Amino acid sequence: MSCPIGKDAVDKLKQFISLCKSNPDILHLPDLKFFKDYLESLGASLPETRNMPSDIKVEPKEATDTEEPVQEDVLESDPESELEFDMTGCVEPDFIDDMNQKMGDPSKELSEEVTDQADEKRMEAMSQLSEGNIEKAIELFTEAIELNPTSALLFAKRGQAYLKLTKPNACIRDCTRALELNCDSAPAYKFRGRAYRLLGEWELAAKDLRQACNIDLDEQTDEWLKEVTPNAKRIEEHLLKKERKKKDKEERERLDRIRQAREAHAKAATAAKEEPEDDADPMGNAGDFYKLFQDPEVMAALQVKFYYI
Fold first, then answer.
1. What is the distance between the terminal CA atoms of the chain, rounded to a whole angstrom?
2. Is the dihedral of CA 213, 217, 221, 226 positive or negative?
3. Which residue has the higher pLDDT, 39 or 257?
4. What is the Cα–Cα distance from 89 to 91, expressed in whole angstroms?
5. What is d(CA 214, CA 154) in angstroms, rounded to the nearest whole number?
6. pTM of the model
7. 3-state class of 105 per DSSP?
8. What does the alpha-carbon distance between residue 82 and residue 242 come to, in Å, rounded to a whole number?
9. 214-246: b or e for each residue (b if 16 or more CB lie within 10 Å)?
10. pLDDT tens, 8-23?
11. Which of 183, 180, 211 is nearest to 196 (CA)?
């Protein structure tokens, strides 16, 4: 069987074994309990600790001329952490009424006769909607949906009626169902985008209205899109800025971990070559050793190695 871990991990493992030989008390460190338990499970007899400190402290590393100072994260107040918008025209969210907003049975088998009946109800509903009888229009659209629950247009038009009643959540629900039935429904994107605008969801509104314009551009959709675009762009730029800051911070932390791991590796290698004096502190190198085991690569190498033994 080929070795399941890389050469660097094997070298670190060798350094660890050398340290254990020179300082057996290291095996009693809490962080190495898994290793101690493993050795004992094989029948190994470990020496009792002679001078195990209750709290191992790692001495601070002296800075050198070539060493770059580690930049500590400073919590600064970001003036754009909370964007503020003019919410004129926004409304309070409405509550969905499942009893009245019936969605029909999508598994229903349709006959030509039933489809024709649904079309008749739709035309009646459109007539009522144009006359301003919105509640009656919704009632007729609902009857049409129960007859033909697979029509994306019926859901989009009922969503439009809910929008006229300033019920954005009900509109969003209907338009979302319409898009599930027909992903290219321009009216569904249009009315759902407007509903998001009423709720102050600028990004979602812009996304839907852009899609509606891409499918079927009309003057009203274009006007609605122009209305929400400034706020949507502010949010998009703000999120990009936050993402850049996050990536920069993660990169600094990654480079710092690599630097610390290399320094710990070098110190451990040096310590492994030196035999301790008879009267030396048996835990004299424990600080550097303990720091070495903060390197996730070392721990991963040990765990993989023990698994395959």
1. 11
2. positive
3. 257
4. 7
5. 21
6. 0.56
7. coil
8. 12
9. ebeeeeebeebbebbeebbebeeeeeeeeeeee
10. 777 777 877 877 777 7
11. 211
Q: How far apart are CA 148 and CA 301, in angstroms?
A: 62
Query: 132 — alpha (psi -120 to 50), left (phi > 0) or beta?
Result: left
H-helix or E-strand spanning residue 78: none
The residue count of the chain comes to 309
Amino acid at 180: E
Nearby residues of 305 by Cβ (< 8 Å), 6 or more positions away: 5, 9, 13
- Per CATH, which fold does 112-199 belong to? 1.25.40
* Segments making up each domain of the chain, as ranges: 1-47+79-90+220-309, 112-199
Tens digits of per-residue pLDDT, 166-202? 999 999 999 999 999 999 999 999 999 999 999 999 9
Q: How many CB atoms lie within 10 A of CB 154?
A: 28
